[in-house]
TrEMBL record:
Protein name per its UniProtKB record: Phosphate ABC transporter substrate-binding protein
Highest taxon of source: Bacteria
Start and end residues of each PBP domain: 37-274
Cleaved signal peptide residues: 1-24
Alphabetically ordered keywords of this record: Signal
Pfam families in alphabetical order: PBP_like_2
PANTHER family: PERIPLASMIC PHOSPHATE BINDING COMPONENT OF PHOSPHATE ABC TRANSPORTER (PTHR30570), PHOSPHATE-BINDING PROTEIN PSTS (PTHR30570:SF1)
Lineage: Bacteria, Pseudomonadati, Bacteroidota, Flavobacteriia, Flavobacteriales
Amino acid sequence: MKKLTSTVTLFVFLSFLILSCNNSGNSKPKSETILEGSTTILVDETLKPIVEDQIQVFESLYKAKISIDAKSEAEVIQSLVKDSSRIAILPRKLTIEEMKIFEAKNIVPKTTPFAKDAIALIANKNNNDTLIALKDIIGVMQGKVQSNIKGLVFDNPNSSTARYINLLAGIKNFPQKGVFSFKTNNEVIQYVAKNDGMIGVVGVNFLSESSLEMKQYINKINVLEVKNDSDINYYAPTQNNIAEGKYPLARDLYIINCQGYSGLGMGFASFLAGEIGQRIVLKSGLVPVRTPSRKILIRKEINNDKK
């Protein structure tokens, strides 16, 4: 009987030890809840302005401190996989291969869509033509010479904008000629503002939510209207055109929570997809995944007294 009891006790202890080891990477900080505590969010650099707006309001409402680590899309994925942070905001979902990495850690990533934005094509205002065909952009990416384009300028060869255009062109790497890159969207805007004939590829949010110091450069560029092969019309990346699916370079935005517990990742995701978060998206010029409600107040009396 004593031997049986000892065996059972040993089994329970070993089971507890195994569970503890498996969940050690998912342990929740004692000071963190869905609305309180501190954390860091990995953010695709092209989406930084809208995320900054969301965090500012979130922190004003709750006892939370959220830091932003803005990187290229490839760097965000790399950091997410390495557990540098368990929360990321990206313009795409995780791939099947990326999901398997987290499944091996007993973590099921929670993916929440919260907005639609777009990739904008910009040119110097000295360029008279404000229209461009998407096939011409793809042609440059495939190494073909285009008489109306001196070159394409990207923020980063590892960015989400580069991946998106590469995918359309059916290539994996930039061609040796006609394509250039910097590090940030702001550097692309500054370069295009100073150089005729160059086409910049940036996140549209950097144009609608630009800083004061960038206004002088944005005033020197035009946002181009783009035509897809399946349509004879050209469309600008406006809120309406993105919402109606007319602009050919639109994309969905997601918050991906890999914390594995009820922490700020869950709370911030709910906030982004909720009433306040969706209003912030709408005000920013992007497209919310659901239209925020509008309250109409009807007054029974109108006071026309003048004081």
